[in-house]
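for the recovery benchmark. tokens below, seq after
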């Protein structure tokens, strides 16, 4: 069985992910709210550190989760296989999200009622699929992770997704979202990687328990508009839009800290 699909207990997945993930904590003893950040299909990049700094400035801890280290997926393999959909779909990678939420709930310095998730591109796919699946057999079969709690999203207070993939293989457009927490999305109209206005339409009609997804459209923004180091011809870094997105992230987290999670 390949490293991307082998079955693990939740404790094994937690241990594996922590080896390569980066933790950013505010000063003090806490308990702090925490946001779990999930990178795009190209892997963990410097842009994640910059977003984590925004979270820290807002009073949140941030864990930048590396989904590739323990799976032994190189950058070349990531672009060749994950970005093309040959392996590690969002529903499977959601096991990483559930595992790190369980880790967060166990930490005495983390507020277990204020856990947010954030995802970029493939990470956004992961976040939305995680919020759409039913606990129990569906989640275990999709993620290959056993030993999860009855409610693996307990403590979730919100989700922030940036240029999320929502095409073939994504579950959320089909099933809708299961949990009732605020969801903020940023979509660029010039995104030729995951689609621009087509993703806006998908998110706009997605079924949710109450409030619809809050979709903010960035006119002229490409995919990964926040990546200074981008070398993809389809990507154009935009410092003004990146600053705007960072402000939105900080505001979203500050608002999420005001009330505990409704998910038990």
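predicted aa per position
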């Amino acid at each position: 069985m390949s490293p991307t699909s082998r079955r693990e207990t939740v404790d094994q997945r937690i241990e594996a992910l922590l080896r390569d993930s980066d933790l950013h904590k505010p000063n003090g003893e806490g308990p702090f709210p925490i946001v779990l950040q999930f990178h795009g299909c190209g892997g963990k990049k410097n842009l994640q550190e910059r977003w984590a700094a925004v979270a820290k400035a807002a009073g949140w801890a941030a864990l930048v989760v590396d989904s590739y280290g323990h799976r032994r997926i190189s950058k070349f393999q990531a672009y060749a296989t994950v970005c093309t959909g040959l392996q590690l779909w969002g529903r499977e990678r959601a096991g990483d999200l559930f595992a790190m939420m369980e880790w967060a709930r166990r930490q005495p310095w983390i507020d277990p009622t204020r856990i947010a998730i954030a995802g970029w591109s493939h990470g956004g796919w992961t976040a939305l699929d995680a919020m759409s699946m039913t606990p129990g057999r569906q989640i275990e079969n999709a993620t290959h992770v056993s030993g999860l709690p009855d409610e693996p999203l307990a403590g979730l207070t919100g989700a922030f997704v940036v240029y999320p993939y929502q095409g073939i293989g994504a579950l959320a457009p089909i099933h809708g979202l299961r949990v009732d927490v605020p969801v903020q999305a940023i979509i660029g109209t010039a995104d030729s990687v995951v689609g621009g206005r087509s993703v806006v339409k998908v998110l706009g009609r997605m079924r949710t328990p109450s409030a619809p997804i809050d979709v903010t459209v960035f006119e002229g923004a490409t995919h990964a508009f926040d990546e200074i180091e981008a070398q993809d011809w389809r990507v154009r870094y935009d410092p003004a839009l990146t600053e705007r997105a960072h402000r939105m992230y900080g505001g979203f987290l500050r608002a999420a800290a005001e009330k505990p999670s409704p998910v038990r």
